[in-house]
Structures are given as C-alpha cells and as structure tokens.
Amino acid sequence: xxxxxxxxxxxxxxxxxxxxxxxILGIGNDIRGDDGLGPYIINQLAILKDxxxxxxxxxxxxxxxxxxxxxxxxxxxxxxxxxNDINTGNTPLDEGLDSYMNELNVDVNESLIERLDKTFLxxxxxxxxxxxxxxxxxxxxxxxxxxxxxxxxxxxxINIVNKDNIVDISISTHSMSLxxxxxxxxxxxxxxxxxxxxxxxxxxxxxxxxxNVKESSDMLIKLLFDxxxxx
Length: 231
Description:
The structure is a single chain. The chain is of the alpha/beta class. It contains eight helices and five strands, in the order H-E-H-H-H-H-E-H-E-E-H-E-H. The protein has helices at residues 5-15, 37-54, 59-73, 95-103, 110-117, 132-138, 178-185, 211-230, and strands at 22-27, 119-125, 142-148, 158-161, 192-198. A five-stranded mixed beta sheet has the order 2-1-3-5-4. The protein is globular, with a radius of gyration of 17 Å.
C-alpha cells in the first residue's frame, strides 16, 4: 500500500525546490467517510504548526506580525491565527500523532518561524472554489492539494497526480472539478501545483476514516510536516 512512499517523498522535495511560500489545501467532505481525509490532514498539520510556534518565546509577536501582514493584503478577509489557520477548526491532535509531536527536535529559530508564517493551511471542504480569492490574495509560490481520489488503486494508496491528469480522477461530493479549479486559479498566474491523492475505501455517511486511509493520512501528515520544517 505504501511501497511508493520514498518516491513520493522525493517528488515533494523536488516540487518544493525554490519554494518561497506555500499553501496546503485540504479538500473533501468530512461527513462522508474517507472523503474527509483532506480536512483531517489540514487540521492535524495546523496543530503541529501551532505546537512549534508555541515553543518560541517570540510567538505572540509573530502572530501579531502575521495578522497585520494578512490584513494589509486585503481587509476583506478575516484573519485566522497560527493555531487554526484557515477553517481548520479545533480538532485535537490524533493519538497516533502524539508520539511524533513529542519526538520533534526542532531548532525554533527566526528562519523557521518565517517559513511557518509563509505556510498557509486551508481546509477547503467540499467547496474549495470558495477559497480561490483568498489563495490569489496570499499569492503563494507553491500550492499542494490533498484529496481523496478515485484512482482504481488499493484503498489507502497515496499517489502524486500531475495537474494535467486530474481530469481523470473524480470525487462526486465536490461541487467543482479539481481540473476546473486549477484552470481558474491559473487564469492570471501559473502557480506551481502538486496534487496528492489517497484512494478512499468508504464514502458512506460517517465522521470516521477507514483504518487503511487513516494510516496513510497519518503518514502523509508526518511527511508533509517534515517538508514544511525543511523547505
């Protein structure tokens, strides 16, 4: 199921070369079983990000700087602080990620804080098109999209999908196709976009992820956070 994990890690490293600012957009409906993996991943990443920032004595000052900076970009958008980022809610850290967080040995320096401040986590839910205006205002150099994706693979399998091939995968709970969403975003700027899909197992009405998808999601959370700390 995860025998391609090293390849995925290398692909993400290659994608993040020369990354100046990053948006990770989680997509999905969190009451439809595995379709909720995107929001789940964003929620957990937001908690890990806040944990690192809270280790810094400069946290309060940096949050105020972040707030002012984002408000200066456009007062139309409400500011969300580092604790929850954008629409990520207050879901507690999953038990399976506790040990990962406790084992993090990170030098919280100004460079890292600046990098975290330029990493925006957005829970796009099942209507990610609602956030296209905000994405354009934040104007990242790189965008990673994470979603449950029907790829005719084993449940829980993680794959990187070229943005030109996204039309070949679909999730019925989304009101706009991801291919169209990307085309709309790129009308004015050619963003660097990486799409990470996880094959779902259960799409029924449920707040829980299936075991296979949960395991893969947790592995992807740790991988993405490691990349956030290093890019």
